[in-house]
Recover the amino acids of this structure.
């Protein structure tokens, strides 16, 4: 008998409805199913832009590797890419290489297109960074501090923004809006959208702050991207 105690009241990961109606009935390989579901969960946990997982990262994920050997994991990833549920980018520089995996949704497709077009550059081979212990005010606290009481609709917008943009961007966008006497979420979201579209510049004119190289500088020093 399983030791599983049941699902909690909170803490769920969204899965697109077409997965159940179009993808799931076609999956026959358990490795592909495990990898696909794990990527839904893993990428939903990530913050910042763009959101992706590397092969190196997946090979060290204990929750995933507990039920999959490396050969099966690679087979599952390849099957998911062929099916179109995942998108894959290969990175090359000298003797180093890395494989990046994105969900094939609007955000993932846009991110891949922008990377391939050179609009978003990622500096260096990506490796998993330890979770920072630094405590930052979350986006809800920032909103209530600078703007006012939350509404359900605003709360949904804030939650989505927290998944897309780095925490440092969000904090600075709030400060910028307050400085310009425009403390409202519409104006703040436009600041974040402009930074994501045009690049965020800091310090002296035309110079990027070293503290905010994520996302524009991730792969900048590592040559050309090739589509997997």
């Amino acid at each position: 008998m399983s030791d599983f105690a049941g699902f909690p009241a909170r803490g769920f990961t969204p899965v697109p409805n077409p997965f159940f109606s179009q993808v799931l009935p076609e999956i026959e390989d358990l490795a592909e199913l495990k990898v696909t579901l794990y990527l839904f969960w893993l990428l939903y946990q990530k913050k910042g832009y763009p959101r992706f997982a590397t092969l190196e990262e997946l090979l060290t994920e204990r929750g995933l590797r507990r039920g999959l050997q490396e050969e099966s994991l690679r087979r599952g990833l390849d099957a998911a890419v062929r099916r179109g549920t995942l998108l894959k980018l290969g990175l090359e520089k000298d003797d180093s290489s890395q494989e990046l995996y994105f969900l094939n949704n609007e955000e993932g497709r846009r991110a891949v297109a922008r990377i391939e077009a050179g609009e978003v550059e990622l500096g260096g081979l990506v490796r998993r960074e330890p979770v920072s212990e630094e405590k930052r005010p979350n986006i809800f606290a920032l909103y209530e501090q600078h703007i006012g009481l939350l509404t359900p609709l605003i709360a949904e917008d804030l939650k989505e923004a927290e998944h897309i943009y780095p925490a440092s961007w969000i904090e600075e966008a709030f400060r910028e809006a307050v400085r310009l006497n425009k403390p409202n979420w519409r104006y703040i979201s436009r600041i974040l959208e402009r930074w994501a579209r045009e690049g965020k510049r800091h310090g002296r004119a035309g110079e990027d702050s070293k503290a905010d190289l994520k996302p524009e500088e991730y792969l900048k020093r590592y040559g050309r991207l090739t589509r997997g």
